[in-house]
Amino acid sequence: APYFGGNTTEIEVVLNRRYPFVTIATMGINTNDMFVALNGVFPRRKSVFFSPGYDAGSEENNELCQSVPGPACREIDTRNEMSGNGEGFVHIHPGIHGIGNLSAPLYDWRNPMMRVIVY
Questions:
Q1: How many other CB atoms are there within 10 angstroms of residue 33's CB atom?
Q2: 3-state secondary structure of 76
Q3: Which of 61, 9, 7, 8 is nearest to 34 (CA)?
Q4: Dist. CA 62–CA 96, nearest whole Å
Q5: How far is residue 25's CA from residue 10's CA, in Å, rounded to a whole number?
Q6: How does pLDDT run across 72-110, given as a tens digit for each residue?
Q7: What is the structure's pLDDT at 94?
Q8: How far apart are CA 33 and CA 11, in angstroms?
Q9: DSSP strand E in the chain: where?
Q10: Cα(43)–Cα(73) distance, rounded to whole angstroms?
């Protein structure tokens, strides 16, 4: 399910000796190519991990609904076309600036994008 700014969710993951590491990855909705990830961490009790929003570098951050999946563009007939002209490398995503169809006051964020708490 999509989660919007300020929303949280809890997911229970059971670890054991055979599978002691955790990896989480998901795309940010209403973005061209933003994702958050936590890769191969060894969680200890009472630990907290933070992840920024990453830009995959695969698409231009044009914020146009023709290339942005998600509920912000549900009213616009879109084929979800890849915008191309990406940076070509992964880096910290700059957020939403309101240059296309997306409203910065509604959809922008500040990092971190994800917090993982281990109980």
A1: 22
A2: coil
A3: 61
A4: 9
A5: 15
A6: 888 776 666 667 789 999 999 999 999 999 999 988 988
A7: 94
A8: 24
A9: 22-27, 34-41, 48-51, 54-55, 91-92, 114-117
A10: 37
